[in-house]
């Protein structure tokens, strides 16, 4: 579904990604783990068209998308849930969800998906008229996910959904990621919480200072000495 071939991404003169290649097949949950500053967010931003690779290619559904505008990529079915949630604080929960569907015009489909988002996240239904800035961190993460789902994505790119959340909320968010995936949405999940990420994913990549240094079956990586020592606190 998604094939990244040897991309190099720069911020000015600083190279943030070195010859990165990954692939995601339809129906998978794939995770990309790595420490702070490894380049995880940079990779997601490059996939969703917010940054352009200097060299290399990104193939999505069999077509090149590097160089395409972010809005076109959303229309093609790729939705990005950014790090730090980025909900519109001065808009209500419902208005944020409506904005997620801005690329669509099928009113009946939008209403159906809004009802489904409220089913997945009953807390958002309870708070639908509330200003988003007044929500807790976990609720804002739910809203950011719900908003991305309103675009009816084929693939969801999630940037550190567990960041700053209490363990129970992290578990709730990961349960929903699994549910959304079971309903047919492919997921590429970026995480510093390697333990949770490797538990939900089928495959994983490890990124260190802009380079993929390990990849493979998530369960096997979770049990490998290298990953345990560097990312699981020796667990
Ligand atoms: P984090 O968990 O902190 O988001 P990350 O793995 O997502 O980490 P990136 O944010 O992708 O890492 O950053 C990768 C590298 O690129 C870092 O060295 C960072 O300092 C640098 N970088 C990120 N954004 C910019 C920018 N706008 N301008 C210059 N350098 C940047």
Automatic annotation (TrEMBL):
<dbReference type="Pfam" id="PF00005">
    <property type="entry name" value="ABC_tran"/>
</dbReference>
<dbReference type="GO" id="GO:0015807">
    <property type="term" value="P:L-amino acid transport"/>
</dbReference>
<dbReference type="InterPro" id="IPR017871">
    <property type="entry name" value="ABC_transporter-like_CS"/>
</dbReference>
<dbReference type="InterPro" id="IPR052156">
    <property type="entry name" value="BCAA_Transport_ATP-bd_LivF"/>
</dbReference>
<feature type="domain" description="ABC transporter">
    <location>
        <begin position="2"/>
        <end position="234"/>
    </location>
</feature>
<dbReference type="GO" id="GO:0005524">
    <property type="term" value="F:ATP binding"/>
</dbReference>
<keyword id="KW-0029">Amino-acid transport</keyword>
<keyword id="KW-0067">ATP-binding</keyword>
<dbReference type="InterPro" id="IPR027417">
    <property type="entry name" value="P-loop_NTPase"/>
</dbReference>
<comment type="similarity">
    <text>Belongs to the ABC transporter superfamily.</text>
</comment>
<keyword id="KW-0813">Transport</keyword>
<dbReference type="InterPro" id="IPR030660">
    <property type="entry name" value="ABC_branched_ATPase_LivF/BraG"/>
</dbReference>
<protein>
    <submittedName>
        <fullName>ABC transporter ATP-binding protein</fullName>
    </submittedName>
</protein>
<dbReference type="GO" id="GO:0015658">
    <property type="term" value="F:branched-chain amino acid transmembrane transporter activity"/>
</dbReference>
<dbReference type="InterPro" id="IPR003593">
    <property type="entry name" value="AAA+_ATPase"/>
</dbReference>
<keyword id="KW-0547">Nucleotide-binding</keyword>
<dbReference type="GO" id="GO:0016887">
    <property type="term" value="F:ATP hydrolysis activity"/>
</dbReference>
<dbReference type="InterPro" id="IPR003439">
    <property type="entry name" value="ABC_transporter-like_ATP-bd"/>
</dbReference>
